[in-house]
Amino acid sequence: MANKDISRRSFLKLLGGGALATTAVLTGCKSKTEIKAVSEYTKQVEPPVGKMTYRINPKTKEKVSLLGYGMMRLPQKPEGNGGYDDYDQEMINRLVDYAIEHGVNYFDTSPAYCQGQSEKCTGIALSRHQRSEYLVATKLSNFNPATQTREESIKMYKNSLQQLQVDYIDYYLLHAIGGGGMENLHKRYLDNGILDFLLEERKAGRIRNLGFSYHGDIAVFDYLLSEHEKYQWDFVQIELNYLDWDYANEINDRNTDARYLYAELKKRNIPAVIMEPLLGGRLANLPQFLATELKQQDPEHSIASWAFRYAGTPEGVLTVLSGMTYMEHLKDNLLSYCPLKPLNEKEQEYLHRDIAEKIVGLQNIPCNDCKYCMPCPYGVDIPAIFVHYNKCKNEGMLPTDCGDEGYREMRHKYLVGLDRSVPKLRQANHCIGCGQCEPHCPQNIRIPQELHKIDEYVEALKQDTLTRHKKKEV
User: Fold this and answer.
1) pLDDT band at 168, cuts 50/70/90?
2) Cβ atoms 84, 115 nearer than 8 A
3) Which one has a higher pLDDT value, 70 or 300?
4) pLDDT (tens digit per residue) in 122-150
5) Phi–psi pair at 214, nearest 5 degrees
6) What does the mean pLDDT of the chain come to?
7) Which residues contact 34 (CB under 8 A, 6 or more apart)?
8) What percent of the chain has pLDDT over 90?
9) Cβ neighbours of residue 231 under 8 Å, at least 6 residues apart?
């Protein structure tokens, strides 16, 4: 970091992906959080080998690493343009090798991840190791109506085996049940006979564990669990973190609190696979006042480690997934789980009361930058717009009233930062409200509605007519 001419791409690579990718340092919203994150990584210690915490799969009795590798945010080549062929296979191989060396054995992918390239990249990296060294999880991601026929869904399943270079899949999931409600569940898995087909594949041994991941309509989650005796779910993937434990529904009335989801699985002795322990990076990049508070509690560990220790503490958790783009992320998460030091009740209550409550009070748009909503048919860069808005709000750099002290500076930084992070032709004013994005959002955000609010807000900034009345509408 002594080199003051460090490139933008190199700087972003050091900071990481997800929420960090649109850094306020580079967009006009000053962020001390990112600067501190860089400093933390430069002082990062090497995680120990042979210290991984494992959980036991009650069905197969196999050991599963508490840290699972989510292959949805894979690194891309520095010289690439973000296309299909721009994933950095050499770096992916290095990350996978390092993870396996340090005890990670659960790798989670999907035909939908990384512009359809994740399974292929994952297969190349894992096939260089003995099959006994890793467990691979993938999904039937038949979101597109064209892939929901029996023939096309089976084709997707068989293609996963081919891309992953395996003759059986350790953990196979119905992907994101709940989106679109019961009607969509029937279209994707029940009426076409695909769930029956997958049950037969499990019986034949080509699927070792069958489960589902959940986002959305709680009626679908409850229905599939009510049929547990029939389907014998081997695991279920849910979103669990210290914010969603009690506040998922309060933040968005379309979501369900993790406390309920976990309790329903625990009641049936179904292992839980955890996704979004960091909420797409949001719990690693807290507003400065909250980050400082956590650092005072535990100066030796990262902000992210609190979230990982929280997600890994419940005994019914089989593994916790993390989309680790860079080696710095991987090492930091390994330090949290090699071995796990579970949070005690006092520490958990501290996160619930002193941290989560304050995050809820910020009233951010609950975007995790997962990009499931993309591409927009009209070119709108939905996650970048939300990330920029949340970033400025969290750093206290969101203009609220043209009469406020500092308004001029904040107005300038917000508008300049928006143009730097989101090209003009991809900003919120180009949303026509078609709604194509909304069914794909795991957080069930009312995307066109939020984009419309931000468009009004930005227009008020441009016209210099922003008042506190406008602030309330954002």
Assistant:
1) very high
2) yes
3) 70
4) 999 999 999 999 999 999 999 999 999 99
5) -120, 130
6) 88
7) 15, 20, 23, 24, 25, 285
8) 67
9) 195, 199, 210, 224
Structural tokens at position 171: 């953990």
pLDDT at 314 over 90: yes
The residue among 163, 165, 170, 160 whose CA lies nearest residue 207 is 170
Residue 79: predicted pLDDT: 74
Cα distance between residue 180 and residue 187, in whole Å: 10
pLDDT of residue 202: 98
CA angle, residues 295, 296, 300, in degrees to nearest 5:
55
Residue type present at position 252: N
Q: Which is more confident, 366 or 123?
A: 123
Number of Cβ within 10 Å of residue 232's Cβ equals 12
Residue 33 has pLDDT above 60, yes or no: no
What is the spatial distance between Cα 434 and Cα 375, in angstroms, rounded to a whole number?
Answer: 13
Query: From the CB of residue 151, how many other CB atoms can be counted at a distance below 10 Å?
Result: 9
Q: What is the mean pLDDT of the segment spanning 433-437? A: 92
For residue range 10-21, list pLDDT tens digits in order: 333 333 333 333
Model-level pTM greater than 0.85? no
Section 53-80 average pLDDT = 94
Please say if the pLDDT value at position 428 is more than 50. yes
The end-to-end CA distance of the chain, in Å, is 38
Tokens 């032709």 belong to 425
With beta carbons less than 8 A apart as the criterion, state whether 97 and 46 touch: no
Which amino acid appears at position 453 of this protein?
Answer: K
Three-class HEC string of the chain: CCCCCCCHHHHHHHHCCHHHHCCHHHHCCCCHHHHHHHHHHHCCCCCCCCCCCEEECCCCCCEEECEEEECCCCCECCCCCCCCCCECHHHHHHHHHHHHHCCCCEEECCCCCHHHCHHHHHHHHHCCCCHHHCEEEEEECCCCHHHCCHHHHHHHHHHHHHHHCCCCEEEEEEEEECCCHHHHHHHHHHCCCHHHHHHHHHHHCCEEEEEEEECCCHHHHHHHHHCHHHHCCCEEEEECCCCHHHHHHHHCCCCCCHHHHHHHHHHCCCCEEEECCCCCCCCCCCCHHHHHHHHHHCCCCCHHHHHHHHHHCCCCEEEEEECCCCHHHHHHHHHHHCCECCCCHHHHHHHHHHHHHHHHHHCCCCCCCCCCCCCCCCCCCHHHHHHHHHHHHHCCCCCCCCCCCCHHHHHHHHHHHHHHHCCHHHCHHHCCCCCCCHHHCCCCCCHHHHHHHHHHHHHHHHHCCCCHHHHHHC
List the structure tokens of 460.
Answer: 């008020």
Q: Provide the 10 A C-beta neighbour count for residue 7.
A: 10
Structure tokens at 100: 């396996």
